[in-house]
Every structure is written in C-alpha cells, then in structure tokens.
Amino acid sequence: MDMPRPPETAGRDDDGSARTDFRRMMIWIAAAGVAMVAGALWYLSLFGPLTVHMVVAATLGVFLSVLLGSGLFAAAFFSAKSGHDQQVTDATRGRSDAAPNPTALPDGLEAYRRTESFTEATVPAGLLSAHSTKPGVWGLIHVTEGLLRYRVSDVRRAPLDTLLTADTRAGIVEPTILHQVEPIGHARFHVEFWREPAAPSSD
To answer: What is the pTM of this model?
Structure first.
C-alpha cells in the first residue's frame, strides 16, 4: 500500500492477438450455427409443414447448442493463447512449500506514517488489486467500521483470505508481498506503516 506494484501479466501483443483470433472463431461458429439451423429446418420440412413454434424451437435449440459447444472450445483456446492459463499456473506454483504469513510485526520497528481513513466509496483503486510495499516497509490494516476482506496472493506466502473487523487483529502487510483488500458493504479502515528506526546521524 506504499508504492503499489502490479503483478506480471501476459504481454499485450499476445492478449490482443488472442482476442482477434477469438472474435474470428466466434464469427465462424455463429456462421456454422446459422447453417446448421437452415439444415435442421430443411430436414424438418421433409416431414410436414413447419409451424411457428417448431421454427422457433429448432432455431434456438440448434443455434444455441452449436454456439455453446463450440464457444467453450474457443474460450479454452483463448485462455491458453492469451497467457491466462500460465498466470494461474504461476500463481499456484510453489504454494505447497510457501512460507507462512507473519502473525505479528518484527520487534524493533517504529510507526512512521498512516493513511487517511478510507471507506468503500473512497478506497483507492490500487488497493483493490494486487500490490506490495517497498522493501523494509511493513503495514498494519486497522478496520474501525464494517468488514474488510484481506487477501495475500503472493506465491512466496501461503494463501491468506480473511475478514478484518474492528474486533479482530489488524491485518499484517509484509514488505514486497502481494496483497489486496476489498470492503464488504460499508467499511472504514486505515493503514499504519512501520519500518526500522533510522540510524542516528553522527556529527
């Protein structure tokens, strides 16, 4: 919460290319669906006159079935090509031996700054997505009203997803570790930053 740093994401070129390919595939799938509907209606017409209800039912049934079935395959290709699958893999890799999250600040730190009080309406967007503090900067998330969801998403630490209230222990922010918050309904909170005391200057 001091100097937000977003996690690595797939390159924009890969994502843009994947989106273009996905749109192209969906156009072809929709065209195939229209052709299948036409074929189905032609086949049904061989057995008698088509009624309005029959046309509507056949059109919706055939078209939606083709769109859903083929669209799921297209979405799977898009997810793989855009790098989203790799992001999930990277996010879960190494969690079995990840270090536990700290339950208290290290001894010897001193508070040096705190944020203003935020609410669900004023919380900065950067705090709602994964970010981290600078090396050596710890934080305490103090909730004074309502509920605040606190999550640690860094692969170097065990997963943490907890609710903070005015009655619970403050959320501990570890230096350089990715985390984020999310107000649940009304909430009011602030963050207190801690670090090693500055070494006394010598004259």
So the answer is: 0.54
